[in-house]
Amino acid sequence: MHRRRLLQLLLLSPVLAPALARAERRSLPFPLVGPYNYALRKNYPTVYRYLNVVDIGHGELAEVLLTNRHGEGYAVRRLEQVAFQRVSEMFLDPRRAPRLQPHEETVAPESVKVAWRLSRAFDWTHILHRQIYDILATNFSAAERERFVRESYNWYLSEPENAFPGRLKTHDLMEHQWFSQYWREKYPRFNGAIWAYHWYQLRLNEVMLEPGRAGRDAAIAEATSEFRAMFENPELLPKHMPMAHTISPTFRARFPEIADSFDNLHMFHDIYNDILAHPKISDKGAEVYGQLEAFLAPGEALETAPLEPLPAGLSREDHRRLNQLTHLEHMAMMLLPTAEQVVFFRQPPEVRSATVQRLRPEMVRHWPNLEKKHPAGHEHQH
Protein backbone atom coordinates (compact mmCIF):
# COMPACT_ATOMS: atom_id res chain seq x y z
CA MET A 1 0.00 0.00 0.00
CA HIS A 2 1.21 3.47 -0.82
CA ARG A 3 2.57 5.25 2.29
CA ARG A 4 0.37 8.33 1.85
CA ARG A 5 -2.76 6.17 1.58
CA LEU A 6 -1.73 4.26 4.69
CA LEU A 7 -1.34 7.51 6.66
CA GLN A 8 -4.77 8.67 5.50
CA LEU A 9 -6.36 5.44 6.74
CA LEU A 10 -4.57 5.74 10.08
CA LEU A 11 -5.79 9.30 10.55
CA LEU A 12 -9.35 8.18 9.86
CA SER A 13 -9.16 5.35 12.37
CA PRO A 14 -11.27 6.11 15.49
CA VAL A 15 -8.76 4.18 17.58
CA LEU A 16 -5.46 5.45 16.24
CA ALA A 17 -6.33 9.05 15.36
CA PRO A 18 -6.47 10.31 19.00
CA ALA A 19 -3.15 8.62 19.76
CA LEU A 20 -1.52 10.14 16.68
CA ALA A 21 -2.85 13.56 17.64
CA ARG A 22 -1.14 13.24 21.02
CA ALA A 23 2.13 12.00 19.53
CA GLU A 24 5.15 14.20 20.13
CA ARG A 25 8.10 14.56 17.77
CA ARG A 26 11.17 13.33 19.64
CA SER A 27 14.17 14.78 17.88
CA LEU A 28 17.34 15.59 19.79
CA PRO A 29 18.74 19.14 20.11
CA PHE A 30 22.36 19.85 19.33
CA PRO A 31 24.70 22.70 20.34
CA LEU A 32 26.10 25.20 17.91
CA VAL A 33 29.45 24.15 16.47
CA GLY A 34 32.27 26.57 17.25
CA PRO A 35 35.98 26.80 18.04
CA TYR A 36 35.15 26.70 21.75
CA ASN A 37 33.43 23.29 21.82
CA TYR A 38 34.71 21.10 24.71
CA ALA A 39 36.90 23.89 26.12
CA LEU A 40 35.44 23.42 29.60
CA ARG A 41 36.22 19.71 29.64
CA LYS A 42 39.78 20.44 28.48
CA ASN A 43 40.61 23.44 30.66
CA TYR A 44 38.51 22.79 33.79
CA PRO A 45 37.95 19.03 34.02
CA THR A 46 36.80 19.07 37.65
CA VAL A 47 34.13 21.68 36.90
CA TYR A 48 33.05 19.60 33.91
CA ARG A 49 32.73 16.48 36.06
CA TYR A 50 30.81 18.36 38.74
CA LEU A 51 28.29 19.51 36.14
CA ASN A 52 27.87 15.88 35.08
CA VAL A 53 26.94 15.04 38.68
CA VAL A 54 24.42 17.91 38.61
CA ASP A 55 22.75 16.27 35.61
CA ILE A 56 22.62 12.95 37.46
CA GLY A 57 21.10 14.57 40.54
CA HIS A 58 18.28 16.21 38.62
CA GLY A 59 17.48 13.04 36.69
CA GLU A 60 17.63 10.68 39.65
CA LEU A 61 15.21 12.64 41.80
CA ALA A 62 12.63 12.71 38.99
CA GLU A 63 13.05 8.99 38.38
CA VAL A 64 12.66 8.07 42.06
CA LEU A 65 9.55 10.21 42.49
CA LEU A 66 7.89 8.77 39.39
CA THR A 67 8.76 5.09 39.71
CA ASN A 68 8.44 4.70 43.50
CA ARG A 69 5.70 2.23 44.47
CA HIS A 70 6.67 1.82 48.12
CA GLY A 71 5.23 4.96 49.67
CA GLU A 72 6.53 8.43 50.35
CA GLY A 73 8.73 7.30 53.24
CA TYR A 74 10.70 5.08 50.88
CA ALA A 75 11.20 7.95 48.41
CA VAL A 76 12.35 10.24 51.22
CA ARG A 77 14.95 7.70 52.33
CA ARG A 78 16.12 7.06 48.75
CA LEU A 79 16.68 10.75 48.05
CA GLU A 80 17.50 12.27 51.42
CA GLN A 81 19.93 9.54 52.41
CA VAL A 82 21.07 7.27 49.56
CA ALA A 83 21.05 9.71 46.63
CA PHE A 84 22.32 12.64 48.68
CA GLN A 85 25.20 10.53 49.99
CA ARG A 86 26.08 9.36 46.47
CA VAL A 87 26.24 12.84 44.94
CA SER A 88 28.09 14.16 47.99
CA GLU A 89 30.78 11.50 47.55
CA MET A 90 31.25 12.53 43.93
CA PHE A 91 31.55 16.22 44.83
CA LEU A 92 34.01 15.48 47.64
CA ASP A 93 36.09 13.26 45.35
CA PRO A 94 35.66 14.33 41.70
CA ARG A 95 37.49 11.20 40.55
CA ARG A 96 34.20 9.42 41.28
CA ALA A 97 32.23 11.80 39.08
CA PRO A 98 31.35 10.85 35.47
CA ARG A 99 34.05 11.62 32.94
CA LEU A 100 31.44 12.25 30.23
CA GLN A 101 28.14 14.09 30.30
CA PRO A 102 25.31 11.61 30.92
CA HIS A 103 22.25 11.57 28.69
CA GLU A 104 19.01 12.22 30.53
CA GLU A 105 17.29 9.16 29.06
CA THR A 106 20.06 7.03 30.53
CA VAL A 107 19.71 8.48 34.03
CA ALA A 108 15.93 8.88 34.01
CA PRO A 109 14.35 6.68 31.31
CA GLU A 110 10.82 6.83 32.75
CA SER A 111 10.61 10.47 33.77
CA VAL A 112 11.47 11.75 30.29
CA LYS A 113 8.34 10.01 28.99
CA VAL A 114 6.00 11.94 31.28
CA ALA A 115 6.41 15.29 29.53
CA TRP A 116 8.67 15.09 26.52
CA ARG A 117 8.29 18.76 25.64
CA LEU A 118 9.54 19.71 29.09
CA SER A 119 12.48 17.32 28.77
CA ARG A 120 13.26 18.95 25.44
CA ALA A 121 13.08 22.47 26.96
CA PHE A 122 15.29 21.37 29.85
CA ASP A 123 17.81 19.80 27.44
CA TRP A 124 17.82 22.81 25.14
CA THR A 125 18.50 25.25 27.99
CA HIS A 126 21.12 22.98 29.55
CA ILE A 127 22.86 22.90 26.16
CA LEU A 128 22.94 26.71 26.15
CA HIS A 129 24.36 26.70 29.66
CA ARG A 130 27.09 24.23 28.73
CA GLN A 131 27.87 26.11 25.53
CA ILE A 132 28.39 29.35 27.44
CA TYR A 133 30.73 27.60 29.86
CA ASP A 134 32.73 26.33 26.89
CA ILE A 135 32.96 29.84 25.48
CA LEU A 136 33.99 31.40 28.79
CA ALA A 137 36.55 28.63 29.37
CA THR A 138 38.59 29.72 26.33
CA ASN A 139 41.44 32.22 26.19
CA PHE A 140 39.78 34.21 23.43
CA SER A 141 39.52 37.98 23.84
CA ALA A 142 36.63 39.44 25.82
CA ALA A 143 35.07 40.75 22.59
CA GLU A 144 35.30 37.33 20.92
CA ARG A 145 33.80 35.56 23.91
CA GLU A 146 30.93 38.04 24.07
CA ARG A 147 30.25 37.59 20.36
CA PHE A 148 30.19 33.80 20.72
CA VAL A 149 27.87 34.00 23.73
CA ARG A 150 25.40 36.13 21.78
CA GLU A 151 25.62 33.76 18.81
CA SER A 152 24.87 30.81 21.05
CA TYR A 153 21.86 32.61 22.52
CA ASN A 154 20.55 33.40 19.03
CA TRP A 155 20.91 29.68 18.25
CA TYR A 156 18.90 28.96 21.40
CA LEU A 157 16.15 31.35 20.26
CA SER A 158 15.92 29.51 16.93
CA GLU A 159 13.71 26.97 18.75
CA PRO A 160 11.25 29.26 20.56
CA GLU A 161 8.97 26.37 21.47
CA ASN A 162 11.78 24.98 23.66
CA ALA A 163 13.30 28.22 24.95
CA PHE A 164 12.59 29.61 28.40
CA PRO A 165 11.71 33.31 28.05
CA GLY A 166 14.36 35.99 28.39
CA ARG A 167 12.17 37.92 30.81
CA LEU A 168 11.80 36.70 34.37
CA LYS A 169 8.57 35.01 35.43
CA THR A 170 6.84 35.95 38.67
CA HIS A 171 7.85 34.13 41.84
CA ASP A 172 4.15 33.54 42.46
CA LEU A 173 4.36 30.64 39.99
CA MET A 174 7.16 28.92 41.88
CA GLU A 175 6.29 29.79 45.48
CA HIS A 176 2.57 30.31 45.90
CA GLN A 177 0.50 27.84 43.89
CA TRP A 178 -1.57 25.33 45.86
CA PHE A 179 1.07 22.60 45.42
CA SER A 180 4.12 24.86 45.82
CA GLN A 181 6.88 24.10 48.34
CA TYR A 182 5.75 20.49 48.90
CA TRP A 183 9.00 19.08 47.51
CA ARG A 184 11.26 21.22 49.69
CA GLU A 185 9.21 20.47 52.82
CA LYS A 186 9.43 16.70 52.34
CA TYR A 187 12.95 16.54 50.87
CA PRO A 188 14.80 19.48 52.45
CA ARG A 189 18.33 18.13 52.16
CA PHE A 190 18.16 17.00 48.54
CA ASN A 191 16.32 20.22 47.70
CA GLY A 192 19.24 22.08 49.27
CA ALA A 193 21.54 20.11 46.98
CA ILE A 194 19.49 21.18 43.94
CA TRP A 195 19.72 24.80 45.02
CA ALA A 196 23.46 24.36 45.58
CA TYR A 197 23.70 23.14 41.98
CA HIS A 198 21.95 26.30 40.82
CA TRP A 199 24.22 28.47 42.98
CA TYR A 200 27.29 26.86 41.44
CA GLN A 201 25.99 27.22 37.88
CA LEU A 202 25.21 30.90 38.39
CA ARG A 203 28.48 31.54 40.20
CA LEU A 204 30.40 29.98 37.31
CA ASN A 205 28.65 32.36 34.92
CA GLU A 206 29.98 35.23 37.01
CA VAL A 207 33.55 34.21 37.79
CA MET A 208 34.30 32.85 34.32
CA LEU A 209 33.90 36.38 32.94
CA GLU A 210 37.36 37.15 34.36
CA PRO A 211 39.39 38.18 31.29
CA GLY A 212 42.79 36.87 32.40
CA ARG A 213 43.48 33.15 32.72
CA ALA A 214 45.17 33.43 36.13
CA GLY A 215 42.37 35.47 37.66
CA ARG A 216 39.73 33.21 36.12
CA ASP A 217 41.45 30.07 37.39
CA ALA A 218 41.60 31.48 40.92
CA ALA A 219 37.96 32.61 40.88
CA ILE A 220 36.73 29.25 39.55
CA ALA A 221 38.79 27.45 42.18
CA GLU A 222 37.23 29.54 44.96
CA ALA A 223 33.67 29.03 43.68
CA THR A 224 34.31 25.30 43.34
CA SER A 225 35.77 25.14 46.83
CA GLU A 226 32.72 26.88 48.29
CA PHE A 227 30.40 24.54 46.39
CA ARG A 228 32.29 21.53 47.74
CA ALA A 229 32.04 23.00 51.26
CA MET A 230 28.24 22.81 51.01
CA PHE A 231 28.52 19.02 50.81
CA GLU A 232 31.18 18.82 53.48
CA ASN A 233 28.80 20.71 55.78
CA PRO A 234 25.14 20.51 54.62
CA GLU A 235 24.29 23.39 56.98
CA LEU A 236 25.78 25.61 54.28
CA LEU A 237 23.30 24.46 51.60
CA PRO A 238 21.09 27.32 50.34
CA LYS A 239 17.77 27.94 52.09
CA HIS A 240 16.20 29.64 49.05
CA MET A 241 16.60 29.35 45.29
CA PRO A 242 19.64 31.42 44.23
CA MET A 243 19.09 33.98 41.48
CA ALA A 244 21.31 35.69 38.96
CA HIS A 245 20.86 39.23 40.26
CA THR A 246 22.51 38.24 43.55
CA ILE A 247 24.91 35.45 42.52
CA SER A 248 26.04 36.59 39.05
CA PRO A 249 25.25 40.34 38.83
CA THR A 250 27.96 41.11 36.26
CA PHE A 251 26.79 38.34 33.95
CA ARG A 252 23.18 39.49 34.32
CA ALA A 253 24.10 43.09 33.53
CA ARG A 254 25.90 41.98 30.38
CA PHE A 255 23.47 39.27 29.26
CA PRO A 256 20.10 40.00 30.95
CA GLU A 257 17.98 37.80 28.68
CA ILE A 258 20.26 34.80 29.16
CA ALA A 259 20.36 35.27 32.93
CA ASP A 260 16.56 35.49 33.09
CA SER A 261 16.26 32.36 30.94
CA PHE A 262 18.46 30.51 33.42
CA ASP A 263 16.47 31.80 36.41
CA ASN A 264 13.27 30.71 34.67
CA LEU A 265 14.78 27.28 34.06
CA HIS A 266 15.68 26.95 37.73
CA MET A 267 12.24 28.11 38.84
CA PHE A 268 10.59 25.53 36.63
CA HIS A 269 12.79 22.81 38.12
CA ASP A 270 11.18 23.72 41.46
CA ILE A 271 7.70 23.63 39.95
CA TYR A 272 8.42 20.28 38.30
CA ASN A 273 9.74 18.79 41.56
CA ASP A 274 6.61 19.94 43.40
CA ILE A 275 4.37 18.33 40.79
CA LEU A 276 6.30 15.05 40.87
CA ALA A 277 6.36 14.92 44.67
CA HIS A 278 2.81 16.00 45.46
CA PRO A 279 0.56 12.99 46.12
CA LYS A 280 -2.64 14.85 45.17
CA ILE A 281 -1.51 15.37 41.57
CA SER A 282 -2.39 12.13 39.83
CA ASP A 283 -1.87 13.16 36.20
CA LYS A 284 1.67 14.48 36.38
CA GLY A 285 2.01 15.00 32.63
CA ALA A 286 -1.15 17.09 32.31
CA GLU A 287 -0.16 19.33 35.22
CA VAL A 288 3.36 19.76 33.85
CA TYR A 289 2.05 20.78 30.45
CA GLY A 290 -0.45 23.20 31.94
CA GLN A 291 2.33 24.88 33.90
CA LEU A 292 4.69 24.81 30.93
CA GLU A 293 2.21 26.59 28.66
CA ALA A 294 1.98 29.47 31.12
CA PHE A 295 5.70 29.52 31.75
CA LEU A 296 6.87 29.56 28.14
CA ALA A 297 4.45 32.33 27.12
CA PRO A 298 6.90 35.24 26.70
CA GLY A 299 4.74 38.14 27.89
CA GLU A 300 2.62 36.54 30.59
CA ALA A 301 3.02 36.40 34.39
CA LEU A 302 6.22 38.45 34.51
CA GLU A 303 8.05 39.41 37.68
CA THR A 304 7.38 42.98 38.83
CA ALA A 305 9.86 43.20 41.72
CA PRO A 306 12.78 45.61 41.11
CA LEU A 307 15.56 42.99 41.59
CA GLU A 308 18.38 45.50 41.83
CA PRO A 309 21.67 43.61 41.49
CA LEU A 310 24.04 43.11 44.38
CA PRO A 311 27.59 44.40 44.03
CA ALA A 312 30.02 42.13 42.22
CA GLY A 313 32.88 40.66 44.23
CA LEU A 314 31.06 39.89 47.48
CA SER A 315 33.13 37.87 49.93
CA ARG A 316 32.74 34.15 50.43
CA GLU A 317 31.27 34.85 53.87
CA ASP A 318 28.68 37.21 52.35
CA HIS A 319 27.61 34.48 49.92
CA ARG A 320 27.16 32.15 52.87
CA ARG A 321 24.97 34.73 54.60
CA LEU A 322 22.94 35.18 51.43
CA ASN A 323 22.37 31.45 51.05
CA GLN A 324 20.94 31.19 54.56
CA LEU A 325 18.06 33.61 53.90
CA THR A 326 14.63 31.99 54.01
CA HIS A 327 12.52 32.33 50.91
CA LEU A 328 10.40 35.07 52.50
CA GLU A 329 13.52 37.00 53.46
CA HIS A 330 14.90 36.55 49.98
CA MET A 331 11.67 37.80 48.40
CA ALA A 332 11.62 40.80 50.73
CA MET A 333 15.21 41.56 49.69
CA MET A 334 14.10 41.52 46.04
CA LEU A 335 12.18 44.72 46.79
CA LEU A 336 15.09 46.63 48.34
CA PRO A 337 17.63 48.89 46.64
CA THR A 338 21.15 47.52 46.38
CA ALA A 339 22.65 49.25 49.43
CA GLU A 340 19.77 48.18 51.66
CA GLN A 341 20.01 44.60 50.42
CA VAL A 342 23.63 44.38 51.56
CA VAL A 343 22.69 45.69 55.00
CA PHE A 344 19.69 43.34 55.14
CA PHE A 345 21.42 40.01 54.55
CA ARG A 346 24.14 40.89 57.07
CA GLN A 347 21.61 41.57 59.85
CA PRO A 348 20.60 39.05 62.52
CA PRO A 349 17.42 37.01 61.88
CA GLU A 350 15.19 38.98 64.24
CA VAL A 351 16.01 42.26 62.48
CA ARG A 352 15.39 40.70 59.07
CA SER A 353 12.06 39.37 60.32
CA ALA A 354 10.96 42.88 61.25
CA THR A 355 11.89 44.08 57.75
CA VAL A 356 9.83 41.28 56.19
CA GLN A 357 6.82 42.37 58.24
CA ARG A 358 7.34 46.00 57.23
CA LEU A 359 7.54 45.06 53.56
CA ARG A 360 4.65 42.62 53.67
CA PRO A 361 2.05 44.92 52.00
CA GLU A 362 4.42 45.56 49.09
CA MET A 363 5.25 41.85 48.87
CA VAL A 364 1.54 41.04 48.56
CA ARG A 365 1.20 43.68 45.86
CA HIS A 366 3.91 42.00 43.76
CA TRP A 367 2.92 38.41 44.65
CA PRO A 368 -0.85 38.36 45.35
CA ASN A 369 -0.91 34.63 46.13
CA LEU A 370 1.58 35.03 48.96
CA GLU A 371 -1.36 35.52 51.36
CA LYS A 372 -2.68 32.06 50.50
CA LYS A 373 0.60 30.41 51.47
CA HIS A 374 1.53 32.73 54.32
CA PRO A 375 -1.51 34.40 55.93
CA ALA A 376 -0.63 37.43 58.01
CA GLY A 377 0.45 36.38 61.46
CA HIS A 378 0.96 32.72 60.42
CA GLU A 379 4.21 32.92 58.45
CA HIS A 380 6.04 29.63 58.04
CA GLN A 381 9.45 30.27 56.62
CA HIS A 382 11.38 27.49 54.94
Kindly describe this structure.
The chain is mostly helical. It has one domain (25-295). It contains 22 helices and no strands. Helix 4 packs antiparallel against helix 5 (72-92), helix 8 (116-136) runs antiparallel to helix 9 (142-157) and helix 19 packs across helix 21 (349-366). Residues 15-24 have low confidence and may be disordered.
> How big is the Rg?
21 Å
Strand count, sense and closure of the main sheet? none
**Euclidean distance between termini CA atoms:** 62 Å
Query: Percent of residues in helical segments?
Result: 55-70%
Number of helices: 22
Number of domains: 1
- Number of DSSP strands? 0
The best one-word shape is globular
Mean pLDDT: 90
> What is the succession of H and E elements?
HHHHHHHHHHHHHHHHHHHHHH
Report the structural category. mainly alpha
In percent terms, what proportion of residues is strand?
Answer: under 5%
Uncertain parts:
15-24
SSE layout and pairing:
Elements: H1 3-12, H2 16-22, H3 39-43, H4 45-67, H5 72-92, H6 104-107, H7 111-114, H8 116-136, H9 142-157, H10 171-175, H11 182-186, H12 188-207, H13 213-232, H14 244-247, H15 249-254, H16 256-277, H17 284-296, H18 316-323, H19 327-333, H20 338-345, H21 349-366, H22 370-373
Which properties best describe this structure?
globular, 22 helices
